[in-house]
Known about the structure:
The chain is α+β, with helices and mostly antiparallel strands. The protein has helices spanning 39-51, 57-60, 74-86, 109-120, 138-141, and strands at 2-14, 18-20, 23-25, 29-31, 89-99, 127-132, 145-156. The chain has five helices and seven strands; from the N terminus they run E-E-E-E-H-H-H-E-H-E-H-E. The strands form two sheets. It has a five-stranded mixed beta sheet with strand order 4-1-7-5-6. A two-stranded antiparallel sheet has the order 2-3. Helix 1 runs parallel beside helix 3.
Amino acid sequence: MRVGIGEDLHRLEDGRTLVLGGVRIEGEVGLAGHSDADVLLHAITDAVLGAAGKGDLGAHFPSSEERWAGADSSLFLTEALRMVEEGGWVLANVDATVRAERPRLAAHLATMRERIAELAGVNVEQVNVKAKSGEGLDAIGRGEAIGATAVVLLEAAPRD
Length: 160
């Protein structure tokens, strides 16, 4: 078994679409970034790559490459999982936390879990997503940014 930790943070920006865990969340602000800036999928992707010893998101999908401009972050996660599966690993579980003062995310957590499970090709019970506020502290607490942290467990793929 191998464990990986991923983390990401993006500032909020008017006029952008907010995407978290592959789910569009309606509102007036989204996250600034080169891709769709989905901090949750970015953190999970980093954790997957880290567990497999494959570097990080920026090494495989650099913001310096125009082809990733506006990219759907689900592509990053599915490609990272493909890479680790080629190395003989499968995703055992994901536990992630999204930190946001706004918008409130409780109503979206189940949909995020379902979407992440779908992208990863695992049962929804293997994915957990929590939301925490920033309690008025730092950029997240002031409503200027959203962050996410993820831990994943990879296990050796079953042999045929």
